[in-house]
């Protein structure tokens, strides 16, 4: 089972992305959140095709924290149905992953 994960979400304003990333890092649910944007997303919503400018958040964490991380994103996310996708990290720089683990919430 993979220990490390990257969680992806999008929001419609840079300020929301910054607020989300700061909250996750402050709570130590993420060691790092990268914000990319603006990007353009095309999707179905309410029976029609939509195009929106969004900001992509790449959240680095550990699988053990996923449930709490997802709840936190849902609690503060502005969308009715936010994209929250978890991707396992199968390999990575040993030093980076050690750093990541040290920055995350420890088992209580």
From TrEMBL:
Entry's Gene Ontology BP terms: response to metal ion
Top-level taxon: Archaea
InterPro entries cross-referenced by the UniProt entry: Ion_tolerance_CutA, N-reg_PII-like_a/b, N-reg_PII/ATP_PRibTrfase_C
SUPFAM superfamilies for the chain: GlnB-like
Pfam families: CutA1
An example molecular function term from Gene Ontology annotations: copper ion binding
Family in the record: Belongs to the CutA family.
Name of this protein: Cytochrome C biogenesis protein CcdA
């Amino acid at each position: 089972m993979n220990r490390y994960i990257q969680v992806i979400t999008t929001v419609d304003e840079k300020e929301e992305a910054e607020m989300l990333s700061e909250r996750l890092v402050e709570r130590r649910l993420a060691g790092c959140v990268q914000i990319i944007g603006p990007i353009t997303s095309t999707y179905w919503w309410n029976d029609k095709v939509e195009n929106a400018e969004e900001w992509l958040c790449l959240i680095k964490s550990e699988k053990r924290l996923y449930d709490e991380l997802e709840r936190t994103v849902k609690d503060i996310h502005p969308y009715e149905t936010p994209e929250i996708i978890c991707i396992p990290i199968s390999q990575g720089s040993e030093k980076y992953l050690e750093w990541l683990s040290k920055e995350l919430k420890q088992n209580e």
